[in-house]
Design brief:
The protein is α/β, with parallel strands linked by helices. Helices cover 38% and strands 17% of the residues. The radius of gyration is 17 Å and the shape is globular.
């Protein structure tokens, strides 16, 4: 018998109002992972209803609503030892402590704060450099959206283990809600 492979995907930082690329990518990633592996999708109690609505019922998928009242690390702790892979598709890597046996993969979508710093305050640039840098340093591998971004991550953060993950062409349309524009 082949042992079960368990993937954990962190959507705890997915805002209910988020329709951006990182969120849509994360939703699509959960659906695809659940087709192949037992998948735990981590949410917060405050966003689980929205995430369930957006993902739906998928065989192989288990929703885990975390309570952060005692801290992020403590909320994740009971689930981490059983995982084989932990993916954070939202430009970071939380919790701060992950067991060494769990292969960790943050998805850093872009380094816009490096390419176009004028879009950001200095405080936001500093936060992103620190938050992304910490995630990249702790990761076993980093995924990003293009080979150009992979090269920027390698150059900016000195991480060799970076791969471009081709985003499915349908992901940004499948999860968009129709908007009526008044003319």
């Amino acid at each position: 018998m082949i042992p079960e492979f368990i993937v954990g995907i962190n959507l705890t930082r997915l805002n209910s109002n988020s329709g951006g690329g990182a969120g849509l990518f994360g939703i699509s990633m959960v659906r695809e992972a659940a087709k192949r592996y037992r998948t735990l999708v981590f949410t917060q109690r405050s966003n689980i209803a929205d995430i369930r609505r957006r993902i739906g019922t998928v065989d192989g998928l288990e929703y885990v609503a975390l309570d952060f009242s005692n801290g992020v690390d403590q909320a994740f702790e009971p689930y981490l030892d059983d995982l084989d892979v932990f993916i954070d598709p939202l430009n970071g890597l939380e919790p701060s402590r992950l067991p060494r046996h769990v292969f960790t993969v943050p998805v850093i979508h872009d380094l816009l704060f490096v390419d176009r710093p004028f879009f950001f305050s200095q405080e936001e640039i500093d936060f992103r450099r620190s938050h992304y840098g910490e995630a990249i340093d702790r990761a076993d591998h980093v995924w990003t959206v293009s080979e150009e971004q992979a090269e920027k991550i390698r150059h900016t953060f000195g991480k060799a283990a970076v791969s471009a993950v081709i985003q499915p062409p349908h992901f940004s349309l499948e999860d968009q809600e129709a908007v009526t524009l008044e003319v």
